[in-house]
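Title: Comparing notes on inverse folding

I've been comparing how different people in this forum approach sequence design from structure. To keep things fair, I'm posting one structure and asking everyone to reply with a full sequence. Here's the target:
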């Protein structure tokens, strides 16, 4: 391999995201920011119960939080998965990595998303697995979080230079929960492409993409057939009627087909049960 090819390969590898395999099958991020659900409840086919509970006075993690979660783990992988699970970054650099506009609104969104990832309670009754064993207990995506704003003197000086003031509002340090780090260290991971993920403009398409990569090892022929009701619970979607679910899924399917994630996607009815049938495209090299 030439030096130039090696550098290009390193840049490509840096855009790989390794996500906790057991965590990826669980619904965590609501895909409708207008939803006022008090919790997310799920019973996986493998058994057990899973529940997502927001902190008092806060809402459930949503679409922006899903993107923040993926970017955190992209950085964690890029840094070689530091054993202590701690990452430090500026809010400005983090938003730029996500391809987001950098302004007061997105700074506030990022602070809130990080706070929810730290404070939202994830309850597992033998549903989530750590190192292959059923886990019974409570945890959060981030076990620690610190967001520091600049000192008063620095803020006063940056006010003279609006571009700099907007670019550097503060610094964050996060620590990823031990349970998620344990699974990644054990190789119990799902690999997704960060560039492909962030190129999908639909939060539903982004979640389906993550779930498809979770399912890929179990479907060597690339075919995955899942009851529509189960898929809605696992994403999760608030809609319940098949016609409403189809209206939500159709544009996401079209996006995944165009992006080359899927070869085919269809929704069919077998007697009284609706199914979604996917043919997965080959993974990104």
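Reply #1:
Here's my take.
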């Amino acid at each position: 391999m030439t030096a130039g090819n090696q550098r290009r390969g390193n840049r490509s590898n840096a855009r790989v995201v390794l996500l906790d395999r057991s965590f990826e099958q669980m619904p965590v991020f609501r895909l409708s920011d207008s939803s006022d659900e008090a919790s997310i409840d799920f019973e996986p086919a493998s058994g057990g119960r899973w529940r997502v509970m927001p902190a008092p006075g806060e809402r459930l993690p949503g679409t922006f939080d899903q993107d923040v979660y993926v970017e955190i783990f992209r950085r964690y992988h890029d840094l070689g998965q530091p054993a202590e699970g701690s990452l430090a970054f500026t809010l400005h650099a983090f938003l730029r990595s996500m391809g987001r506009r950098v302004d007061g609104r997105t700074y506030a969104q990022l602070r809130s998303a990080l706070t929810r990832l730290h404070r939202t309670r994830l309850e597992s009754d033998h549903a989530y697995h750590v190192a292959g064993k059923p886990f019974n207990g409570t945890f959060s995506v981030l076990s620690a979080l610190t967001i520091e704003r600049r000192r008063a003197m620095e803020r006063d000086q940056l006010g003279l230079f609006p571009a700099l003031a907007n670019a550097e509002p503060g610094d964050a340090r996060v620590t990823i929960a031990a349970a998620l780090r344990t699974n990644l260290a054990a190789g119990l991971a799902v690999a997704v492409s960060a560039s492909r993920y962030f190129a999908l403009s639909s939060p539903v398409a982004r979640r389906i993409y993550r779930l498809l990569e979770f399912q890929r090892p179990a479907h060597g022929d690339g075919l995955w057939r899942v009851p529509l009701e189960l898929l809605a619970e696992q994403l999760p979607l608030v809609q319940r009627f098949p016609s409403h679910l189809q209206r939500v899924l159709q544009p996401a399917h079209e996006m995944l087909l165009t992006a080359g994630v899927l070869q085919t996607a269809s929704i069919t009815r077998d007697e009284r049960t609706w199914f979604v049938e996917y043919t997965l495209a080959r993974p990104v090299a």
